[in-house]
Amino acid sequence: MVALQIKNLPTGAGDDIKMDASYSKGATKYVISTSATSPSFAMFGGSSFAYQSVGFGATSDGVFLPGPGGTNGIQLTTSWGVRGAFNHNWDPYWSTSLFGSYAGVRYDGSTNDNLTGAGLTTAKGAYCAAFAASHPGQALVGSATGAYTCNPDYNVSQLGILTRWTPVKNLTFSAEVDWFHLYQKMSGSSVFAATAPQPTALYEFKDQNTVTGEVRVQRNF
Q1: Cα–Cα distance measured from residue 21 to residue 100, given in angstroms and rounded to the nearest whole number
Q2: What share of the chain is helix, strand, coil (3-state, %, to 5)?
Q3: Count of beta carbons in the 10 Å neighbourhood of residue 113
Q4: What is the rounded CA–CA span in Å between residue 200 and residue 192?
């Protein structure tokens, strides 16, 4: 990881820009991290032909398949990311921060290599074989259960703005809006078995978006 902070900006007293870039092999949570136990993504949205669309982002440190023809040890996951933020102080009481990030997760191997003779020795081969066991239609053109190509690679991007009001020392009111986008690499569609509250239905693999908002009051003692 490398980081840079730029101070003494002409935009105002106390303003600064922070940036960092990170790369990992087998330590993905140093790049993509949340407060949850697992920072993996499963997001649903609309579809023009299926019951719904879905996007997956499986965050792992590595993939392992034992036995003959397996991965011959743990195949480590590669990840990278960049982040940046600009903070501006309007006056001693008000400040605003604009921030964003972009990150990627990559599994070794080629798309559908478990179906093209490359075997299950790669991370993609092992992952897609396990996925196909419960999701029919992988690489089957014209299947009644849908047809899809499997690729667990994905990218995520985020953009947000945060405004704070500190009327007295150690008391801050803030409002934040965030946009998040999942660039998933799966394509096509497949039938998913029923899981509450969703029924058994055809789902389209598709990129997903979400917008969140938060209002917060913080008192430090």
Answers
A1: 12
A2: 5, 50, 45
A3: 21
A4: 6
Work out how many domains the chain is built from and give that number: 1
Query: How many CB atoms lie under 10 A from the CB of residue 5?
Result: 10
The whole domain housing 141 covers 2-219
What is d(CA 158, CA 55) in angstroms, rounded to the nearest whole number? 16
Token representation of residue 92: 């001693």
Average pLDDT, the chain: 90
Q: From start to end of the chain, where are the E strands?
A: 2-6, 16-25, 41-45, 52-57, 62-63, 75-76, 78-89, 94-106, 148-149, 154-168, 171-184, 187-192, 201-205, 208-219
Residue 145 pLDDT > 60: no
- The pLDDT, as a whole number, for residue 134 is 86
pTM beyond cutoff 0.70 = yes
* C-alpha 97 chain-centroid distance: 22
Give yes or no for residue 148 having a pLDDT over 70.
yes
Does the pLDDT value for residue 34 go beyond 70?
Answer: no
